[in-house]
Amino acid sequence: MKKTSIGGQAVMEGVMMKNLDRYAVAVRKPDHEIEVMTDEYKSLGSRYAVLGLPIIRGVVNFGESLYIGLKTLSYSSSFYEEEDYEPGKVEQFFTKIFGDKLESVLMGITMVISVILALGIFMVLPFFLTNLMKGFLPSYSIRTLIEGIIRVALFLIYIWLISKMEDIKRVFMYHGAEHKTIFCYEHGEELTVENVRKYKRFHPRCGTSFIFLTLAISILVYTLLPINSELFIEAFGVSKLIGDMLRVCCKIISLPIVVGISYELIRIAGKYDNVLTKIISAPGLAIQRLTTKEPADEMIEVAIASMKPVLPENAEDAKTMCEQWGIESYSPMEFCLSFDVTANRKNLLSITTYDYRDSNGAHPNEVCESKTYDMKAEKTLALTDVFGTDQKDIDDMVYQTFVQYLKDESIEVDAETDKTVKEQAPNVNWYLTDDSVGMYFNPYDIAPYAAGRPSVALAYADAKDEIKVDLSEANLDKLEFELDGNPTTGYTWEIAKADADKIDVKSEYAADTTDKDIAGAGGKYKFTVTGTGEGNAEIECRYLRTFEGEKSALKTVILKLYVSKDKKITVLDKIESDNTKGTEAVSEKTTVKELSDDIAVLSDGQKYVLGEALVYDKDSKKITCTDLKAGDMVYTASCGDALVIIRNNGVSGEEAKNYLKIKSAEEDRIELDNGEVFLTGEASIYEAADSTDYKKLGIGDEVIVAKGSGDTLVVIKY
């Protein structure tokens, strides 16, 4: 059933319907013609955000409903005023004073008098009745409970008495017509007398239900509000009568809270259909047997006439109303947009969106669209990326798959259908799940609406040789990985970071025993990760000397993970850095964020000891290569126009293979053994012992950093 914001009220020989800022009143005039008046009222809640907050909006809505109700009631009654009626002297006096504003003034006075009478009958009277029991009922809670019961009883007696009045009986019949018409509309049926007639006259969003719920909630609130007359008598030394009056005032002051709570509950009851909402609605629905009566056909016609002017005129109206009221749908155009994440594994994210629309046609329509992203490569994938083949092969595969699907579903594949499938094959929607590649067409794409959404799923297990995207390290019960290390050097793998609320990490070291004759051969550090809580998590491991701290880290491994609800682990990304080898400077620019005498903090969060940093300003052109000689072991870090060459003498064995040799060094050029030639005007030579000029750094300087061997760090001012 559709949920809408439409509500209404019975008036004299008519019905008022309101929808957001628009309302309409239809009245059956004495000549039996239907007169319809439409108007707008912009709620204070839409004009002032604070008045639209929960609880507060209930009080605002109640006051506005009372105002509009009295206004429309006055309008309807105007058709039944005596033609020869002459205003009295009092009315003439007020007309002279207020002029055209007289109606508004009288309405305000009526509202005030109505509120005062209601408070007197349903608040003050029950209090003084229970106050008489104080002598033999000393318990405040019991008296408050009895007071609430009296209040409810007075309300029921009042409803029962007025229901016996002939004029009120007709109002209650129009009340029933209002409810039936709203129900018919919510069920998506055409608004005709025959269709409206078959629906119930009891509605959970009825004002009667709201009033009763307010009375019921007041019992709970006033019981929990420990304010009695004795508190005021003891605190202020007032008389018992004054104490009683102050207690009543406190209850009246707290009444807006009761109204606000009741309003939120009635909204919930109208929006959802479950055991709790049925319990909330049950008493109010029962009382509606008194306040609503079965209407005549002519009354239903009036209710339909009052509803039609407040219906949305187009889809945009419907969408706007949905957004404003937070309702799921709005007829005659029901609009709903949602999405589903079908896969979040490794670097792949698959999302399907659902665009659902119902315009009260032959059937609703839902159009789906799926996209799969490679977050590391920062691109949207195509099926050609998944299967590693060209588009023609993909189109043929889709064509054959869905022709077979239609045949399996006993859908005739004639020449026209075959042609349609072949033409639509390049437009197939697809997505990834944890275990398959899904493909589908929307209704009408290749088959009639009755065929639904033709869909197939190709399991990874059945197509592992064809699927080319990286689906490894996903949905693991536990993640295990190994890192090479040699604790005899003083370096060990330490866990620098692990999100303890999402994952549990354990590690152990096993020495290499393949050749027992070699001492200090090193071994493997084995890490085991298990999921403990849903969400994204990160592990950072550093290969360092613990006694020297993080500055000594030679290697870093960072794993970015996702833990599902069932504690399965997916590796989203793996980042490795190795400071034992020459590296290219990062291509992104970063800036100096903080600077002290010995520490520089960059905008990416990295910290550097300035005594180990070297600054090269490419604009200064203070270059020399006299320290270099042929045969020196070096590595290079390329930074824009600058070439940084870091001497690394003393390297031997296998490690030396990672470095380049200077083939020749002249006054204006350097040639490396890989054939690269650099002009010395674009090169600077630094060693760890020559760490100077770091004070040239300033906060806000744009820099590029390149980590060198050992303790050497090069910071290039950009």
Top keywords for this entry?
718 residues, alpha+beta, Immunoglobulin-like, 4 domains, six-stranded mixed beta sheet, 17 helices, 34% helix, elongated
Head-to-tail CA distance between termini: 64 Å
Number of H/I helices: 17
Q: What characterizes the major β-sheet?
A: 6 strands, mixed
State mean pLDDT (0 to 100 scale): 76
Q: What is the approximate shape?
A: elongated
Instruction: Name the structural class.
Output: alpha+beta
The residue ranges in which pLDDT falls below 50 over 5 or more consecutive positions are 314-318, 325-332, 580-587, 638-642, 650-657, 686-692, 707-712
Physical arrangement of strands within the biggest beta sheet:
21-20-19-29-30-22
Could you tell me the number of beta strands? 30
Task: Give the domain tally.
Answer: 4
Backbone CA Rg: 40 Å
Q: What percentage of the residues does DSSP assign to strands (E)?
A: 25-35%
Bin the helical content: 25-40%
